[in-house]
Amino acid sequence: MLTAVAATTLVTGCGSSVGGSAADSTLVSYTGQSGDYQINFNPFSSSTMEGPGTIFEPLFFYNITQDAKPLPLLGTDFAWNADGTQLLVTLRPNVKFSDGTPFTAKDVAFTLDMVAKNKTINTTGYDGKAVATDDTHVKITFSKPAFMQGAQVLGKTFIVPQHLWSKIPDPANDVIAQPVGTGPFVLEEFKPQAFTFKANTGYWGGEPAVKRIRYLALAGNQSGADALKSKQIDWQTGPVPDIKNVAKNYPGYQAITVPMNQMNLTTCSNAALGCTGPQTDPAVRKAIYYAINRTQLNSLAFEDTASDISPGFTLLGRDAKYVSPKLQEKLAPKSPDLTRSAGLLQGAGYAKGPDGLFAKDGKPLELTVQVPSGWTDYITAINTMAQQLLPAGIKLLAQQVSYNEWADARVRGRFQLLIDAMNQGPSADPFYDYNYYFSTETTAKVGESAYPNYSRYSNPEVDAALNAVKGIDSTDAAKRQPYFDVVQTRVEQDMPYIPILTGGTTSEYHSDKFTGWPTKDNLYAFPAVWSRPDQAQIYKTLKPAGQ
């Protein structure tokens, strides 16, 4: 029913994509949203629908798929002092917010100061002090070397207008229904089933050739595949049947797969911060890790588009040189080791009962895994792992919930397990994932908002190593590696996130309708519709076919 409503909205709002109509410049995106949208364009909220990159811009764009120089956006140049305690940024002149107000260095200083004062939106422990020295220059001072804060400050902090946001009492949780930014698009219309952005005619980089972007809410992956088949959407990131033959099965479309997202079972791991359940025991987490048949899982759930993953969570391929030689296992095992799994549980005081399940203190080892309804690949993955873990004496129960319920449970720690993937940081550097997901600074007690260390993981050795890396120039790989070794080996030992596989992120796109999509030979941005601000770079590059 939802799919039909969304499709009707699409047809009446956009028209046909054939014949040179105005609809040729309207791009229809599906981000995987299952269920109605709840309006929120707050770029600092974990439940934002859209806006980072498209409406709210960072200072520079960092390409996370490769080691490349950052692309100037609101900023045109930046430089560190010798010891990494001062960052000078030059801004683009003559930029305006979409309400016509001039953008200046005061907006940058205000935004950074707001982040520093609000722990919930300060995802990397930013502790600088920003000062606008004039309209186009900002000086950011740190109390200690802070090289590794640079990419986050410059590439992932979305600048908001001081004249509006200074009136917002809670920047982490306030719902922004009428967003004002400097980006290439502005909000045109919102409805729960679909919302539309239109090109910003006053954009400093020139009005985009894509005149409208319409975001649909459907019923899940199958609805996305059906909409793709009928040419009702132009870009989605997600699985479709027979994914290796997209061009054949969906005439006019192409697909690209990039291994970027480290899929895992996120555990609420830290009893000291309020987590409850058997998953708070590292032995249980590692027993699950060894009971998974990843070869079978890849085939049944991911059409063999996934690849190996490291238990230290260094992204293989792009960052393979950083994988620690001190890991017990450089790669998660492809085949299950039930003997090792059982040994871990027995060592933790579990015993197998007559029903074949391990139990402790009279309680069978049963765990609930939350997953958004409609995420068919992840649902299949959980069901497959549930079958795989039964011979290991572990029972997994899939709990399908709405995306909004899942996201809220994730950020507040109200779960035992949930299936998720680690998204990459602001630049092509493993430090950021380590700092995001393993740092005490980025987590919180159960019931409070943690972002993005959802597992509530805290280890003083890891914290010390991460703090040390912050003061080392990112080009000095040899000096950084000993600290990376500490992070990876402790994470492997504690396993707050149970590694599944590295997800091959596949996007299907309407190549006959728009040109300029990223390709493997020209990966100018990570081509996932939900990756921000990469999606904005792609929207700005695309042109309707024939232009």
Automatic annotation (TrEMBL):
InterPro entries referenced in this protein's UniProt entry, alphabetically: Peptide/Ni-bd, SBP_5, SBP_5_dom
Superkingdom of origin organism: Bacteria
Q: Which GO terms describe its molecular function?
A: peptide transmembrane transporter activity
Q: Which GO terms describe its cellular component?
A: ATP-binding cassette (ABC) transporter complex; periplasmic space
Tell me the Gene3D superfamilies matching this sequence: Dipeptide-binding Protein, Domain 1, Dipeptide-binding Protein, Domain 3, Periplasmic binding protein-like II
- Show where the Solute-binding protein family domain sits: 70-440
Tell me the Gene Ontology biological-process terms attached to this UniProt entry: peptide transport
Q: Which one Pfam family would you cite for this protein?
A: SBP_bac_5
Q: This chain belongs to which protein, by name?
A: ABC transporter substrate-binding protein
Name the source organism.
Answer: Amycolatopsis balhimycina DSM 5908
| Upper taxonomic lineage | Bacteria, Bacillati, Actinomycetota, Actinomycetes, Pseudonocardiales
